[in-house]
Design brief:
CATH class of the largest domain: Alpha Beta
Number of domains: 4
Number of strands: 19
Largest sheet: 8 strands, antiparallel
CATH topology of the largest domain: D-amino Acid Aminotransferase, Chain A, domain 1
Strand order of the largest sheet: 13-12-9-10-11-14-18-16
Helix content: 25-40%
Radius of gyration: 21 Å
Strand content: 25-35%
Mean pLDDT: 95
Distance between the termini: 50 Å
CATH superfamily of the largest domain: ATP-grasp fold, B domain
Length: 405
């Protein structure tokens, strides 16, 4: 890979770490982002202020700098752009059809249904009349989602038709295509999966528990625990479903992020992304199984081989990730006056990584969106239970002073 040029589409906080890793691997990095202050633009060898939704603008940047590959990290809306750039320039990529299937929830659900992948009942809607028809198909309780958004924006749990009427406009407003999907809500344990596809073979790298808070932020993963607490036949079925879903959506070479739900009715697919996920999942892979997902993604973007020594687990280390959130998390709510040092957190037993994104003057609110996660703590231990206890305890060591908003 040394000496090649790679294009990062999107250059925010998550991208910055991947850009720095690419430079460590002696790659030349070109990055685009519409935000001139994006951290990744400063870290790249070449940073250009281009909105990645401007496909022709991104293609122009890629051509001018002679890139050998393109990728994104965490940004779901950038996945179709990366695929289109790769197709236009004849570079390795997942293809625009696969990118659409893995970023548009309705297209994804339909393809999974065709392949017999277990999932909740669902129906699509574009207006009030079609939403009511969808509710007749799906029933309540249900989850309302934009068809093509992320970060838990515009997602609502519904108990009645009145709640559907109340929240439909907000969900539609978050969809670029003006479309929503209504899905049957199921109680159960949610799982995050990491799957690496090579040459059409999908292998599950990790399955971890994705714990969520009660209330309006029910869709936000605020704790990750590895390894998952399921075992035996249920674990085998979850691994089978994760790989089956990845294969059904057509991903031949890439990193998939399936989210599953373990219910009384079996293991169901919530959705599958085609990228390195956010939420510190790349850190989970690195600390828990010794796999560098960024190197895997870079190799695949450049059409380089991905050997077993890079793609398969090298160790097995229980860990837990505790995100810094408010109500009912460890952070207080209100306007931030001061933020204490991370030193006590980093020095706590078992802590291997921690960070905070808090800034003085911002307002901490009860958790509702992924963006309400204002930092994290990763802790390891001999068991996942002890790792979670360590992460929880360390998270409380960060001193944040607030005043009422």
């Amino acid at each position: 890979m040394q000496g090649k040029t790679v294009l990062f589409v999107g250059a925010g906080r998550h991208q910055r770490r991947a850009i720095l890793r690419a430079k460590e691997l002696e790659l030349r990095v070109v990055a685009v982002d519409r935000n001139p202050d994006a951290l990744g633009l400063q870290a790249a060898d070449v940073g250009e202020v281009v909105d990645f939704q401007d496909l022709e603008g991104v293609i122009d940047v890629a051509r001018r700098h002679g890139v050998d590959g393109a990728l994104t990290v965490s940004a779901d809306r950038a996945v179709p752009i990366v695929a289109a750039v790769a197709e236009e320039l004849g570079l390795p990529g997942i293809g625009t059809e696969v990118a659409h299937l893995m970023t548009h929830k309705i297209a994804m659900r339909r393809r999974l249904a065709e392949a017999g992948v277990p999932q909740p009942r669902f129906a699509a809607a574009r207006d009030l009349a079609s939403a009511h028809a969808a509710a007749e198909t799906v029933g309540f309780p249900a989850v309302l989602k934009p068809a093509d958004s992320g970060g838990q924006r515009g997602i609502f749990r519904l108990e009645s038709i009145d709640e559907l009427d109340a929240h439909l406009h907000a969900a539609l407003a978050e969809s670029a295509g003006g479309e929503v999907v209504l899905e049957r809500f199921h109680d159960g344990l949610e799982l995050n999966g990491l799957v690496i596809a090579r040459g059409g073979e999908a292998e599950v790298l990790t399955l971890s528990d994705r714990l969520r808070p009660p209330g309006i932020g029910f869709g936000v993963g605020w704790i990750h625990v590895y390894p998952t607490t399921i075992f035996g036949d249920v674990l085998a079925e979850a691994e089978r479903v994760a790989a089956h879903a990845t294969h059904a959506l057509g991903l031949r070479d890439g990193i998939a992020f399936p989210q599953l739900l373990v219910t009384d009715e079996g293991v169901l697919v919530i959705e599958v992304a085609a990228r390195i996920p956010g939420g510190q999942m790349a850190d989970l892979a690195r600390h828990a199984v010794g796999v560098d997902l960024i190197e895997v993604a870079l190799r695949q973007a450049l059409g380089e081989p991905v050997p077993d020594s890079v793609a398969r687990a090298q160790v097995q280390q229980p860990l837990a990730i505790r995100f810094l959130t408010a109500s009912p998390g460890p952070l207080p709510t209100g306007r931030v006056i001061s933020i204490g040092p991370l030193d006590p957190v980093l020095a706590a037993p078992g802590v291997v990584q921690a960070d905070t994104y808090l800034v003085e003057g911002e307002t901490i609110r009860p958790v509702r969106l992924d963006g309400d996660r204002r930092g994290y703590v990763i802790a390891i231990a001999d068991t996942n239970v002890e790792a979670l206890q360590r992460a929880e305890s360390a998270a409380r060591l960060l001193q944040v002073e607030v005043e009422p908003a």
